[in-house]
């Protein structure tokens, strides 16, 4: 998962793609990739993004896993203040469906 390696600017420039990737990736997969790269700032952004998107349960799962592995995660919202988020109630079955819902 490339989001484990991108800068904070990516979430501002391509927030739609970031949301679709985060919404479509399980907490276990997110945690595994973050642990693989071991970048705490990336973990902070991803957990913060999940919280901002209304995916609090997934954010808690990822954070607990990372904290158990010794990474001290402090969530930070990487999105712009005016970002429009996909609804958590609408399941995103594909990246294309997610983009259409954001139109």
Task: Give the secondary structure arrangement, pairings included.
Blueprint: H1 8-13, H2 15-24, H3 27-37, H4 40-52, H5 56-68, H6 95-101
Helix pairs in contact: 3-5, 4-5
Characteristic terms for this protein:
103 residues, mainly alpha
Structure description:
This protein is mainly α. The chain has helices at 8-13, 15-24, 27-37, 40-52, 56-68, 95-101. α3 (27-37) runs parallel beside α5 and α4 (40-52) packs antiparallel against α5 (56-68). It is globular. The chain starts with 7 loop residues before the first helix and ends with a helix. 31% of the residues are buried. The mean pLDDT is 86.
**Cα distance, first to last residue?**
25 Å
Q: Give Rg in angstroms.
A: 13 Å
Given as residue ranges, the uncertain stretches (5+ residues, pLDDT < 50) are: none
Question: Which secondary-structure class do the elements indicate?
Answer: mainly alpha
Outline of the structure:
The chain contains 6 helices and no strands.
């Amino acid at each position: 998962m490339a989001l484990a390696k991108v800068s904070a600017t990516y979430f501002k420039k391509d927030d739609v793609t970031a949301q679709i990737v985060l919404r479509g990736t399980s907490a276990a997969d997110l945690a595994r990739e973050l642990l693989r790269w071991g970048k705490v700032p990336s973990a902070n952004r991803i957990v913060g993004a999940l919280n901002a998107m209304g995916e609090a349960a997934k954010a808690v799962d990822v954070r607990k896993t990372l904290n158990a592995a010794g990474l001290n995660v402090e969530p930070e919202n990487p999105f712009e203040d005016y970002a429009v988020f996909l609804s958590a109630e609408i399941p995103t079955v594909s990246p294309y469906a997610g983009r259409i819902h954001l139109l």
